[in-house]
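Request from the bench team (R.T.):
"We need a structural guess for the complex before ordering more fe (ii) ion. Sequence and SMILES attached. Just send the tokens back."

Command: build protein-fe (ii) ion structure.
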Amino acid sequence: MSKFNSSQKIGMIVTEFPKAADVFKEYKIDFCCGGDRPLITAIIEQGLNETEILDRVNNLYEKFANDLASKDKNWQEAPLGELIDHILNKHHAYLWAELPKISFLTTTILRVHGKNHPKLSKVHKLFHTIKMELEAYLTKEETIQYPAINKYENSSAEADLAEATGIIYELQEEHMGAGDILKELRIITNDYHVPADGCGTYQSTYAKLQEMESDLFQHIHLENNILFPRLFELRKV
Ligand SMILES: [Fe+2]
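Reply to R.T.: structure attached below.
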């Protein structure tokens, strides 16, 4: 019997099997902000082939399950401190390092190619909007939420948990905002298609923007579909 079916929620599938994200990315199925919906909803909405997608995910899973060398961490079970350390070291560190570089790149291609490709002005604006929003959101997590989680893990005090969960809705809304900008960037760049007269910098800018998208999807998935639900679960106990 197949492991996954289309009535399961997209985020749940990625939580159980992180590599499913590769297939979802390929079909542009939103697994971070839209992760709370059953897979079939996205399939119908986007006019996709249900059998094809399920086969891809299930075959990949089978291969993964047979691959004993695979060591993907189970973030549902790992201590919360370990999960936020992972998010910090992998995803926050990535954004703090890469956002200024991508800013320089989007400004450079705007100056060089903006006259022939006016859409680059919109790319520049969208990127700098997401950059500004991400910097504020990373700071909020690093100065308010994550310290509260660490405190709670040591104290088990209700007040610390309340502080950690208190800003979740705000953060979720910010994730949605980032997801919307990523979608707009995809549309305006025609899926990051570099025009024939685009130079190497043009190419590396679009490659970097795609890398950022990929990293953000994984990052938001870990928070929206794993970290936040685990915190809410603790409040119920
Ligand atoms: Fe984060």
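Two things stood out. The longest helix spans residues 119-155. Residues 80-236 form one domain.
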